[in-house]
């Protein structure tokens, strides 16, 4: 495939960066994943806004405009054959000649982007959607989970734990036994027709799928939405559990720690929400 590295397009096999890059040595960088279906990017502006925020949180100065990013994303989609592609954007602080923790003054950020094929967006049909089975465990990541850092070891270790247990994801909870999010997605429960998800704070990533979904549900008004702390007790007694991310949209969870969620089938509220999301995503 064709990738983008520091202003140039090239085959992936030719993209090279220094092992002294701070992204490699420290995980010192910010990333984004933006979905596109039939060549059309979803949530593009909020994705770029989140990346700009992440860069400013960690004091990386990069002079890429939103138009530059759009051009990179559209060029990658086109050069890699269109269809359904996720675009991965990665900005590290750059390459230094020494390994010293403090931010160096005069290095240029490394900018890397590639695209990868993603599954078609789910159809709002209970019969065809992928059903997720998840584990749960205490969230052992850091206290800045709102930053989309490339340092993902905590997420990777949690995901692996769920994966080794034969599950597709893992739901995390804090020391107060409140759900935070999944290892690579946001998490929700449905109880008596109301969708409930934890509020935005340092414990979770402000997902763009979450942003669009809550916006669409509130504008439609047929499903009630609450942003508040959700205890694991509530999660275990939920009628439905959902996960959202750019690469899966709304994913219904039918099993948690080996126990069926609700009646163990994909729920009605999921179907309605995915229908609204499919029609309303931007
Ligand atoms: N993951 N929470 C975490 C920890 C995530 O890694 C992600 C996304 C989300 C959902 O955010 P969004 O709706 O903006 O994709 C929540 C991406 C897809 C990844 O790391 O591959």
UniProtKB/TrEMBL annotation:
Its cofactor is pyridoxal 5'-phosphate. It comes from the Bacteria. This is Aminodeoxychorismate lyase. Gene3D superfamilies: 3.30.470.10, D-amino Acid Aminotransferase, subunit A, domain 2. PROSITE patterns: AA_TRANSFER_CLASS_4 (PS00770). One of its GO terms (cellular component) is cytosol. Belongs to the class-IV pyridoxal-phosphate-dependent aminotransferase family. It is an enzyme of class 4 (lyase). It comes from Marinomonas balearica. One of its GO terms (molecular function) is 4-amino-4-deoxychorismate lyase activity. SUPFAM superfamilies: D-aminoacid aminotransferase-like PLP-dependent enzymes. Pathway: Cofactor biosynthesis; tetrahydrofolate biosynthesis; 4-aminobenzoate from chorismate: step 2/2. Keywords: Folate biosynthesis, Pyridoxal phosphate. Involved in the biosynthesis of p-aminobenzoate (PABA), a precursor of tetrahydrofolate. Converts 4-amino-4-deoxychorismate into 4-aminobenzoate (PABA) and pyruvate. It catalyses: 4-amino-4-deoxychorismate = 4-aminobenzoate + pyruvate + H(+). The keyword DNA repair does not apply. One of its GO terms (biological process) is folic acid biosynthetic process.
